[in-house]
Amino acid sequence: MFTELEHRVSELRFIDGIEKVEHVRFSTGDQFWVRFNRPIDMQKLQDIIRNRGCQLIKFGGLPSKLPRKLSEVLWNGVTHVIARNISGWEKFTSSLGFEPDGIGKIVVDLHGPYQIFIAMNEDCVQILYDYLGVRYVPTAPPTELVAPAVKPAAAPKPTVPLQPGANAPTTAKSASPSPTAQTSDQDKKAPDT
Question: Among positive and negative, which fits the CA dihedral 55, 58, 60, 64?
Answer without folding.
Answer: positive
